[in-house]
Amino acid sequence: MFLKVQLPWNVIIPAECLDAKGLMLQRQIIIRLLEAFSSKKATQELGYFLAVTTLENIGEGKVRQHTGDVLFPVVFSCLTFKLYRGEILNGVVHKVLKHGVFLRCGQVENIYMSCQKMPDYRYVPGENPLFMNEKMSKIEKDVVVRCMVMGTKWIEAEREFQALVSLEGDYLGPVSD
Question: How much is the pTM?
Fold first, then answer.
C-alpha cells in the first residue's frame, strides 16, 4: 500500500556551501535533503521510502559550534510503500523452487509463496521449473501473480521487509495480459 506521510528531518549544510542569497541556500537544503532521503532505504513503521513530494517548511538554521556547519530542521511530505496483511498485490516471479516461488513487488525483493499455499498447482521439474494446475495455468519465472499477503517480517540488518503470500482466495493466481 502507498502511504503519504509528513516527516521532520534535519539537514546539515557545510559552512563552505553557505551563501548570502536565500535562493541558493534553499537549493542546497533541497539537494541535501534528497541525498539523505535516497540513502535511507526504509523503516519498520513507514515501509520503503519512494519519493519526496513537497517541502512543507524550512526551520531556522542553528550553527554547530565546532564545525561551523548549519543544521536546518525541515518538514516534508513523501510517498512510502508498505505491505499489510490481507492486502492483494501483483508480484513478478523471479525464482522457482520445488517448495515454492519467490516474487518481487515494488521495492520488496523477498516475497515467498509456498507450494502449500498454491491450491491445485503442482511442481513440474525441468530446465525451467514451474507450477501448473489442471487448467494449464502456469506459475513460472517472469510471470505476474496476483496474491494475498499473509504476513510480513522486518529485517533490521538489511533494513527491508520479507513477506509470505498465498493464492487461497477469489481471483488470485497468474495474471494474463
Answer: 0.84
